Amino acid sequence: MSTMRHEMKWLSLALGVMLAMTGCEKKKPDATSKNTTAVTTPKDGAANNTAAANQTGAATSTSPTLTPEQLVKESRKYGHIPIVGDTDRASITTKFENWKKAEDEAKAKEGIGAKLVAVPEGATVTIVFGTWCSDCFREIPRLWDALDQVEKKPPFEIKYIAVNEYLRADRDLTAMNIHNIPTIIVERDGKEVGRIIEQPTTVVEEDLLALLAGEKKGILTNTPALRQRYGLDEKK
Fold first, then answer.
1. Which end of the chain has fewer CB atoms within 10 angstroms, the N or the C?
2. What is the rounded distance in angstroms from the CA atom of residue 163 to the CA atom of residue 132?
3. CA 60, CA 42: separation in Å to the nearest integer?
4. pLDDT tens track of the chain, all 236 residues?
5. Structural domain spans, the chain
6. How far apart are CA 36 and CA 34, in angstroms?
7. 218-220 and 191-197: which strand pairing?
8. Which string of DSSP letters, residue by residue, matches 189-207?
9. Could you tell me if 131 and 91 are in contact, meaning their C-beta atoms sit under 8 angstroms apart?
10. Axis crossing angle, helix 49-56 with helix 134-148, rounded to the nearest 10
11. Out of 3.40.30.10, 3.30.70.1450, 3.30.360.10, 3.40.190.10, which CATH number does the structure's domain 85-229 have?
12. Among 172, 161, 226, 165, residue whose Cα is nearest residue 26
């Protein structure tokens, strides 16, 4: 029995590393991935993927090779069942202690709140993210701290849409063109101004401010593969 426990513990840690390495990009679904209903998970939420990677160190060299579909199934056995669909900040931090800890520790740039509260009114900010995603875990708590610096109700609306590991929610997101997360979309008058994808060009709160203030538009990302995909480094 002790040998079995040891093997299960090793597999849990190894899977955490592999999940962190896959990134927050759309995975090809299998026949069992149609059910996107959120399921109750242990209180600690299991799974800051980055932390798992740090704890296991060189374990990746002997980790089993799994397809993305197998990886999702196995990772869920050992902890993290993501929130799926419309949600809010309180729901995230209440369900997952690691997100609550990140919320408490994240630090945005000082003075950003006064700038955010001064942007023109009427924008909608839609944050598409995954509670399982290391990029989201890095960027969203920092954005929360920026919003906490706003001393009154911000002049823009914020919506959260949580997705599973296949970037699926409880409704069709095809029109939103989501391929990587986090994707933070800024809209005015029903039209998209721009979006921040995966890694911001500076820091997430400054990129959001630039879109809300009209100083920038279009796709903002510092992820090399995405910059190449969208032709952002091409000379004009």
1. C
2. 9
3. 25
4. 544 444 444 444 444 444 444 457 876 554 444 433 333 333 333 333 333 333 333 333 344 577 777 777 776 776 789 999 999 999 999 999 999 999 999 999 999 999 999 999 999 999 999 999 999 999 999 999 999 999 888 999 999 999 998 999 999 999 999 999 999 999 999 999 999 999 999 999 999 999 999 999 999 999 999 999 999 987 55
5. 2-77, 85-229
6. 6
7. parallel
8. TTEEEEEEESS-SS-HHHH
9. no
10. 130
11. 3.40.30.10
12. 165
**Length in residues, the chain:** 236
Residue located via tokens 């374990």: 59
| Tokens matching residue 37 | 């209903």
> Please, are residues 156 and 74 in contact by the beta-carbon 8 Å criterion?
no
Residue appearing with tokens 């849409």: 161
| Tokens linked to 143 | 């954005």
The pTM for the full model equals 0.75
Evaluate whether 209 touches 119 at the Cβ level (below 8 Å).
yes
